[in-house]
Amino acid sequence: MTFPHISRRRSARKVSATQNPVDTGIILKKILKQALENDRIVCGIYPSIKMLERNPENIMVCVLPEVETIDVTVQIEHTLIQAYCREKGIKVLRVDSLKKINAILDNDKNLFKDFSCVLVKKVNGKSDGTSAKDILTYGSSSHVIPIPD
Questions:
Q1: CA-based max dimension of the chain
Q2: What is the per-residue pLDDT across 34-76, written as a single tens digit (0 to 9) for each?
Q3: Rounded CA gap, 18 and 48, in Å?
Q4: Could you tell me which CATH number the domain at 40-145 has?
């Protein structure tokens, strides 16, 4: 015997605006721009690994773009970073494009060259408000978030 009215109510409660990948992409883009302005971004595999090793409690979120190449090394690096972040309680978000991350974070100063891993630091040891809460409550890291152009 099934209870369709109960299962509909439960599924309606689970779905929220923060779990919509498109909305999450818009919020993530905003957070990345704010973090860049406030010098709270760490870009690149090796700088990210160093930051995670030294100060993991200061990281709000780890952003990993989908890898377009069949480079096994990058896939292994991403897998290891995801595992380490999960172990330390850091939210991992996978996004749809390295090029879009590059477009958001590539400023006039050309501070960063490698966008294969992006860490967003917390503000004074705390997440930066409502947008961050929306990102941090987003579903699973198995979903790829589309970032708007």
A1: 63
A2: 999 999 999 999 999 999 999 999 999 999 998 777 788 888 9
A3: 26
A4: 3.30.1330.30
* Burial letters 13-33, b for 16+ CB under 10 A, else e: eeeeebeebeebbbbbbebbe
Give the single-character DSSP code of 75.
Answer: H
Alpha-carbon span 84 to 69, nearest angstrom = 23
> Angle between the 21-37 and 98-105 helix axes, to the nearest 10 degrees?
40
Residue 64 corresponds to which tokens in the numbers above?
């990993």
Contact between 45 and 63 under an 8 Å Cβ cutoff? The reply is no
Q: CA-to-CA distance for 64 and 45, rounded, in angstroms?
A: 10
Structure tokens at 70: 């069949």
For residue 146, what are the contacts with CB-CB under 8 A and spacing of at least 6?
A: 21, 22, 25, 95, 96
Structure tokens at 34: 């704010």
pTM of the model as a whole: 0.77
What is the distance between the alpha carbons of residues 102 and 27, in angstroms, rounded to a whole number?
A: 17
Distance (Å, whole) CA 108 – CA 90: 29
Beta bridge partner(s), residue 94: 64, 144
